[in-house]
């Protein structure tokens, strides 16, 4: 063996020190993840950013998302909804709320 490539035979090899588990260091990662998530959630809920982002598409049709957002705003403003028509495009296209109100106001509801 060539001593020049591996060093002198007088070299003492010291094993690397192993790290031991410490609670002082263990809490940093979960706390950092939680802090990152809280900051991201707060930033994503700012009204200016909500308006700037594209509309959500998890309902396969942007119109559904708009109606859900309108319902959420109405619930936030008034706290309740008297009547909610839910259904397919048949319900959306064939029920006219103003006509329903007129028909309802003309009847005695006791």
Structure explained in plain terms:
The chain has one domain. The chain is rod-shaped, with a radius of gyration of 32 Å. It is an all-alpha fold. The model has no long low-confidence stretch (mean pLDDT 81). The protein has helices spanning 3-6, 23-26, 28-44, 47-52, 62-78, 89-94, 97-105.
Summarize the structure.
The protein is built from seven helices and no strands.
Give short descriptive properties of this protein:
mainly alpha; 7 helices; 110 residues
Spatial shape: rod-shaped
Strand content: under 5%
Number of domains: 1
Number of strands: 0
Provide a count of the helices: 7
Largest sheet descriptor: none
The low-confidence runs, each spanning 5 or more residues with pLDDT under 50, are none
Helix content percent band: 55-70%
Radius of gyration over all CA atoms, rounded: 32 Å
Oligomerization category of the chains in this entry? single chain
**SSE topology string:** HHHHHHH
Overall mean pLDDT? 81
Structural class of the helices, strands and pairings?
mainly alpha
Kindly, what is the distance between the CA atoms of the first and last residues, rounded to a whole number of angstroms?
A: 105 Å
